[in-house]
Amino acid sequence: MGRRKKIVQECEKLMDKPEQIRNIAIAAHVDHGKTTLTDNLLAGAGMISDETAGQQLMMDTEEDEQERGITIDAANVSMTHEWEEKNHLINLIDTPGHVDFGGDVTRAMRAVDGALVVVDAVEGAMPQTETVVRQALREGVKPALFINKVDRLISELQEGPQEMQERLMKVIGDVNDLIRGMTEEEDVDWTVSVEDGTVAFGSALYKWGVSAPSMTRTGIGFPEIIEMERNDQRQELHEESPLSNVVLDMVAEHFPNPLEAQPRRIPTVWRGDADSNLAHTMRDVDDDGEVVFMVTDISMDPHAGEIATGRLFSGTIRKGQELYVSGTAGKNRVQSVGIFMGGEREELDRGVPAGNIAAVTGLRDAIAGSTVSSVEMTPFESIEHISEPVITKSVEAKSMDDLPKLIETLRQVSKEDPTIRIEINEDTGEHLISGQGELHLEVITQRIERNQGIPVTTGEPIVVYREAPTTESREVEGISPNRHNRFYMSVEPLSEEIVELLKLGEASMDMPELERREALMEAGMDKDTAQNVETIFGSNILIDDTKGIQHLNETMELVVEGIGEALEDGPLAAEPVQGTLLRLHDARLHEDAIHRGPAQVIPATRDAVHRALMDAEIRLLEPIQDVRIDVPQEYMGSASGEIQGRRGRVDDMYQEGDLMVVEGIAPVDEMIGFSSDIRSATEGRASWNTENAGFRVLADNLQPEIIAEIRERKGMKAELPAQVDYF
Fold first, then answer.
1. Residue-wise pLDDT tens digits, 155-212
2. pLDDT band per the 50, 70, 90 thresholds, residue 46
3. Which pLDDT value is given to residue 425?
4. pLDDT of residue 463
5. CA angle 339, 345, 349 (to 5 degrees)
6. How far out from the chain centre does Cα 651 lie?
7. What is the pLDDT of residue 54?
8. How far apart are CA 459 and CA 533, in angstroms?
9. What dihedral do alpha carbons 659, 665, 666, 667 form, nearest 10°?
């Protein structure tokens, strides 16, 4: 029997023992060594040979991942590990580190109960480290820490035991500060420590590792490591204290199994009735209960078609079942179930029970984030992605014959990656893809060409702007085309606290009214306003302040539709509106329903919203990025000049080891082409990292010029509405 088949059989045996299952993700800043570490763990589990571990990068299965040397897609693998004389099933997801692919990390966290955070010993906790820790904690996932590349402290930086200890303690301290900052309101202490075994150290490249329990067991501590590293005895070090044992022991001992995790996680990710039968079967990880499956990833298999991967919280998922997919009509029939072994899926003849991560085919209506179940149910909370698309590119098929195939491919792309937004214009043949950054869009368009064989031409990157009011408007009137219906509205800016709350989904229309009201009041909204929330559009709120207006109830759906349209295309440049509180004060409606249909109400409310926004001195907001550059001292001036020359601001400069760190912010629009400029300015000696940091008001002197450019690009009239006379 082949080694692989044997491992699959071992995994099958353990699926029914939830106390022996660990669902984990490996997450880190880009280039801190996640995929190399995963190779070590796979070698330790006997899935790849020890010699090639670290070079094979088994989880980077796509050609472009290997070419670029970065992980782009989250990849799943199931393996077994013996700890305390019991075999454990470890379902592992290797996630990307690059900020452009952060959506994969967020989705992976929904499927797992533990997150192994990897930090480079030399670079320390970086911006993306903070992001992945935040993503884990928001999903109720327990962290543990692996400090990688410790060999560099010894061989490159020539540090002695004292300096090494100080540096490593600082990394642990920084990670704990992040954890404390994000869990202070909860009653759990998830900080990591060397003493309790939730921190391990090592070198994924040279395959050795240590932790407090392993030091006790093997007698190999830091003095021995320094000596063996300096004497070039890395192979002996790997044999005596293999990294895979140290890390997998830590995973088995300190990460919760589904029986411990699900009772705590279900209230965090699901807002349904806590006393219902369904809630009990999910909390109890009951494999005889109704099927409840959360899809966290959609991928394409050339033979099997679409594969939905996700976490099974209740029931047993089997071939032939007919299941509901949230948000769609009818049922989907399961064609096959299996588990992932890196890039390959192993189909199973049996069902996959609750507590496991499964790969399922046949769920044609599912997208990443769908709830799939055997009974109709309240879906899971939508997966809130931390950043929004900030860059857009147009994509056109070179040959018109490829157009239907391109449209199909783009629809597939948006199913697989909800952080991508696709706008398809079937009239012009031009399609817009919006993503997290230049690399994100580059990878998507390359894959369309390479995997689907569709030659495409792409336009220059376009930055996505937002529009927002800056002051409170007067009450304005919107009149329907037949002049029989009138709506009276005003708008005002929402506070940053409330906007943040809405973006994170911590106040939404899916929540019970009381809970939503309390969340809004805690963020600073007054009680009367919070009581009258009619609906929420993204980060905008509509308040119904009307009193006893006849026919308004039956017209409200159209009012909401008109307001939604107005907010999607703001009055300045048809960019989305954000951070707005809209108040409907009064309405005059025609008695006859035929005179207050969609053709009358929608234009009237749309007009009222746009006029109120212009009265509130609406402004264009531009997306900005946090920028961090690590550079030798002699290039510090050039590096800070690169930020300042892009309408950016340098906030801090400090020394870290032998490098200077320059931190600041800059507009996304000015950061296009930054990588080649910073390389030439620092002769290739700088490493840098950018992270999307939301939106800020564009400088007044730039507003007319940028608005005119966007209007021209969208084929709108050049002149702004007459009310916009405040620039």
1. 887 888 888 889 999 999 999 998 998 777 677 889 999 999 999 999 999 999 999 9
2. low
3. 64
4. 86
5. 60
6. 26
7. 44
8. 41
9. 150
Cα–Cα distance, 566 to 574 (Å, whole number): 9
DSSP 8-class letter at 459: -
pLDDT tens for each residue of 612-627: 999 999 999 999 988 8
Q: Rounded to an integer, what distance in angstroms lies between the CA atom of residue 109 and that of residue 114?
A: 8
Residue 53: what pLDDT?
46
CA dihedral 468, 470, 607, 582 (to 10 degrees): 80
| Helix, coil or strand: residue 441 | helix
Distances (CA, A) of 712 to 607, 705, 715, 718: 22, 11, 5, 6
Among residues 67, 83, 66, 84, the alpha carbon closest in space to that of 75 is found at: 66
- Reported as a pLDDT band with limits 50, 70 and 90, residue 338 is very high
* 35 Cβ neighbours under 8 A, 6+ residues apart: 57, 59, 60, 71, 94
Q: Which of 349, 282, 344 is nearest to 78 (CA)?
A: 344
What amino acid is encoded at 261 in this protein? Answer: A
* Strand ranges in 70-213 using DSSP code E only, listed in sequence order: 75-83, 86-94, 114-120, 142-148, 199-203, 208-211
Q: Which two tokens stand for residue 363?
A: 């769920």
Neighbouring CB atoms inside 10 A of 519's CB total 18
- List the strands of the sheet with 476-479, edge to edge: 476-479, 486-493, 580-588, 540-544, 533-537
Report the C-alpha gap between 361 and 389 in whole angstroms. Answer: 29
Task: Classify residue 12 as exposed, middle or buried by CB count within 10 Å of its CB (0-12, 13-18, 19+).
Answer: middle
CA dist 632 → 125, 373, 637, 638 (Å): 19, 55, 10, 11
Indicate the range of 438-452, 550-564, 659-673 predicted with least confidence.
Answer: 438-452
Task: Identify the CA nearest to 61 among candidates 344, 316, 314, 433.
Answer: 344
Q: How many CB atoms sit inside 10 A of residue 190's CB?
A: 18
Reported confidence tier of residue 524, pLDDT bands at 50, 70, 90: very high
Tokens linked to 443 = 């990878």
More confident residue, 458 or 264: 264
Q: How is residue 264 written in tokens? A: 């705590």
Rounded to an integer, what distance in angstroms lies between the CA atom of residue 170 and that of residue 382? Answer: 36
Which residues, in sequence order, are bridge partners of residue 82?
87
Q: 238: which 2 tokens?
A: 């790997």
Percent of all residues in the chain with a pLDDT value above 70, rounded to a whole number:
91
Q: Are 541 and 582 in contact (CB under 8 A)?
A: yes
Reported for 63-68, long-range contacts at CB under 8 A and 24+ positions apart, including other chains, are 63/450, 64/443, 64/446, 64/447, 64/450
Q: In whole angstroms, how far apart are CA 658 and each of 5, 22, 272, 633? A: 49, 40, 53, 8
Alpha carbons 277 and 286: distance in angstroms, whole number: 11
Burial class (CB in 10 A: 0-12, 13-18, 19+), 422: buried
Contact 560, 534 (CB under 8 A): yes
Q: Which residue has the tokens 């550079």?
A: 631
Tell the burial category of 447 from Cβ atoms under 10 Å away from its Cβ (0-12, 13-18, 19+).
middle
- 3-state DSSP percent of the chain in helix, strand and coil, to 5: 35, 25, 35
Q: What is the DSSP track for 232-260?
A: T-HHHHHHHSBHHHHHHHHHHHHSPPHHH
Tokens of 380: 């899971």
307-346 burial, b at 16+ Cβ within 10 Å, e below that, comes to bbbbbbbbbbbbbebebbbbeeeeebebbbbbbbbbeebb
Of 7-21, 92-106, 192-206, 446-460, minimum mean pLDDT range: 92-106
